[in-house]
Amino acid sequence: MTVFDKVSNDKKLKIAAIDIGSNAARMQISTVLHDEEVVSFKKVEYVRFPLRLGHDVFTFGALTPESIDRTTKLMQVYKLLIELHEVEAYMACATSAMRESGNGHEVAGHIKAVTGIPIHIIDGQKEAELINNVVVQALDDRQFLHIDVGGGSTELNLYINRQKINSKSFKIGSVRLLEGKETKGAWKKMESWIEENVDQSREVIAVGTGGNISKLFNLVSKLSETSTTLAEIKRMKEYIAGFTLDDRINKLRLNADRADVIVPAAEIYICAMEWAGAQQIVVPDLGLKDGIIQLVYEQLCKRKKRK
């Protein structure tokens, strides 16, 4: 039996991922399942909390004492859940807000000192890579434009025949747009990148990841269990935009931290799809946390193999 088999066959093995984004911080704990040669991960715990770190960073350039305190408390909660679940290995990654914050590394050091959780502040390329590692499993041989919209940035990745052709991170995100803090010229740069890289002579299908597209997908009419049309996304965006913020929360039953960012997020997906000429979008239930889970598992296998 290989080390890989030993790790995979341990039914009690749990691993965890923490994703500290510009809008919310998420923690997922998964059990490793092994069916013959196929390894999969079953979610056993998922917690999401709306820290809205992007508000501080995109407005003031740094995290405020209040946000630092809230983030530290949340990491203490996550650490307790990790211990209660007897998680064997985990990783915490922070994205756009903390990497652009003037005190991001200082805050990460403070959180590690208080909670023992080391926070990896990753760049846009690494963020895209982690997401791509799981998204590629949902693709086929056609041309796909993967659009991942976060609170502070949008990652675009172009695939043909399951091979990544190119990728780029742009400082356009749902919280950044809400605050009116998008980088000058970012929209034009995104449009130009799409026009230069997407092969307009062949069909292109969008792939959407992120909390906002997942919520939009739950509300629209669907082509299949995992896909819908550009027209449906546009229709739902206009429908939601017609409600006040209070009505989005009380009538549409959107979380408060989703109700204000879902329309600007939808605009990013719509623009990217229109520029690419994509009329269909696939929305797999995957994201950065899933990429972190996979990376943690691979690293755990390597550590056990060295032993």
UniProtKB/TrEMBL annotation:
Which InterPro entries does the record associate with it? ATPase_NBD, GppA/Ppx_hydrolase, Ppx_GppA_N
Q: Which sequence ranges are marked TM in the entry?
A: none
Write one Pfam family the protein is assigned to.
Answer: Ppx-GppA
Tell me the ranges covered by the Ppx/GppA phosphatase N-terminal domain, including all copies: 41-293
Stretches of the chain forming a coiled coil according to its record: none
Name the Gene3D superfamilies for this protein: 3.30.420.40, Exopolyphosphatase. Domain 2
Question: Which PANTHER family did the record assign?
Answer: EXOPOLYPHOSPHATASE (PTHR30005), RETROGRADE REGULATION PROTEIN 2 (PTHR30005:SF0)
Please state what the protein is called.
Rod shape-determining protein
